[in-house]
Amino acid sequence: xxxxxxxxxxxxxxxxxxxxxxxxxxxxxxxxxxxxxxxxxxxxxxxxxxxxxxxxxxxxxxxxxxxxxxxxxxxxxxxxxxxxxxxxxxxxxxxxxxxxxxxxxxxxxxxxxxxxxxxxxxxxxxxxxxxxxxxxxxxxxxxxxxxxxxxxxxxxxxxxxxxxxxxxxxxxxxxxxxxxxxxxxxxxxxxxxxxxxxxxxxxxxxxxxxxxxxxxxxxxxxxxxxxxxxxxxxxxxxxxxxxxxxxxxxxxxxxxxxxxxxxxxxxxxxxxxxxxxxxxxxxxxxxxxxxxxxxxxxxxxxxxxxxxxx
Length: 310
Description:
By secondary structure, this protein is mostly helical. It has helices at about 5-10, 30-50, 60-80, 100, 115-135, 140-160, 165-195, 195-225, 230-255, 285-295; strands at about 15, 20, 85-90, 110. The strands form two sheets. The protein has a two-stranded antiparallel ribbon with strand order 1-2. Strands 3-4 form a two-stranded antiparallel sheet. A hairpin with a 2-residue loop joins strand 1 and strand 2. The radius of gyration is 25 Å and the shape is globular. The model is unreliable at about 285-290 and about 295-310 (pLDDT under 50).
């Protein structure tokens, strides 16, 4: 049975949304590619979750974050493979190439906004993976994620703009990206180097890999949503290869590097519920009862019990 997603989800014809259609859209070849990437992301998610069970629960944080990245990407690629999560936008540049020319009455190109929803969720998680590996302080992590969100949102707005004003948003996004790249390649790298050779090596490999790939995304944007140079099928391959490299391959590199790194060395002091001997065997209440009795018989001089961060 052939791929019928384009016909099934187009109203009244392929690439149709709310009565409008895109003359410049993916073919069944592009849809097939999106399904293939969906499979890669889905299998990666199950593999990463499976590997997490080889670690104690307090050591699974990087597995959970990385699995969330590939899971969200799998849903996004499923949506694009079904030719959903897109809207027609009139192109700024009219090309003579038949694959991106449209028709005499329709020069709309389908823009997959679901791709940007994916990136709005997954790129902060990628940065969280990296910056936690470097042991960065939370204010720096949160601010870097904010700048990253600006980068993604301006890319989405630019893709949805028909006029040359789209390139203003493109510039905003590129400036935001340069900020993120500086934090990852310079500030966080120095921080990681102070935590040990193994941490520094893992961070450097994953950080350089990520920023190198992220430099290629603005090129893909300029050739597809921005400049209407390459066909939507080629756009699918360009973005799909980048996403596979930036998510499952990145995850493999990161988790391999973390195999012998205790999260406590990164400032991540995560305690499981059964790590406290007072909790094991139902002795938690009795333990606290003894402390209260001791405080009551101590001549009235009581001190507040200290608490340990979990």
